Amino acid sequence: MKDISPRVIDPDHLLHRVNRLPEPQRSEELAKARLKADELVRARGRAGRKNVAYARAGAWKKYESRLDKPLLEKFKKNYQAFQDEVARIAEERTEDLVLWLESKSLLDAFSEFHGKNVHDGMVFDDQVGRALFGVNHSLVGQRKIAAWVDDMQATESNLIWRAMALNQVDAMRELDSYLKEASAHNDKRVLASSLGWDTVFQKSLKSVADVYKKAIAETCCSSSSMYFSDQPTTSLR
Questions:
Q1: What is the sign of the dihedral through the CA atoms of 199, 202, 204 and 205?
Q2: Taking 90 as the threshold, does the pLDDT of residue 229 lie above it?
Q3: What is the mean pLDDT of the chain?
Q4: Structural domain that includes position 127
Q5: Predicted model pTM
Q6: Residue 167 in domain
Q7: Which of 12, 28, 64, 204 to pair with 213, CA 20 to 30 A apart?
Q8: pLDDT, tens digit (0-9, with 9 covering 90-100), for 123-144
């Protein structure tokens, strides 16, 4: 794995360097990145199997004689009962939460965020994150998130993809178009190097990229303002 560059998983490298290269250099660099990604996945699989085997070899045998097995079994039984009760309560409460996430009242409230204002989009993304916090810890919540993701549409009611576009109208429209294009390939389970993404995505997600650039710039400006507001003022008189 030493010959695999960390750049292979660095989106900034692909977005800001490789994606701006002229053809055919861009396609050549993307092909190299796909090959490296495939090798990284294979290498991780090999290393993972070795680590599991090594851990099992020296895991419990030398400690088993020290255990109070009846007490351990009692603990396991009580712990499992506790976990089952936690899961039951979480499922019940998440059912109500999912109904709220799908409600017209919530969607009406989210309509207050302007679809052409990046600051509003950033706040929208934050509020959606707060609304979804912890929902994935229950089966009901996991199914709802999976349904949104599999729906592959950046619509008003699909909070996952809507938040991905920061609720910005142009970005949502563009992302929705690309999701529909990608859904045609969704049933293909292939290596990254064998899938011609250049034929799937004929052009870059310009509106989405612009939204995130503006969001990053606004975050930096806000951070700078906070920094300078905390500094002592010096009179020039």
A1: negative
A2: no
A3: 80
A4: 74-221
A5: 0.56
A6: yes
A7: 28
A8: 999 999 999 998 988 899 999 9
d(Cα 56, Cα 123) in Å, to the nearest integer? Answer: 47
Helical pair 206-229 and 169-183, crossing angle rounded to 10 deg: 140
Q: Is residue 42 part of a domain?
A: no
Q: Is residue 173 part of a domain?
A: yes
Q: How many domains does the chain have?
A: 1
User: For residue 18, is it within any domain?
Assistant: no
DSSP per-residue string spanning the chain: -TTS-GGGG-HHHHHHTGGGSPTTHHHHHHHHHHHHHHHHHHHHHHHHHHHHHHHHHTSSTTTGGGS-HHHHHHHHHHHHHHHHHHHHHHHHHHHHHHHHHT-HHHHHHHTTS-TT-HHHHHHHHHHHHHHHTTGGGSHHHHHHHHHHHHH----SS-HHHHHHTTT-HHHHHHHHHHHHHHHTTTT----GGGS-HHHH-SS--HHHHHHHHHHHHHHHHHHHHHHHHTSPP----
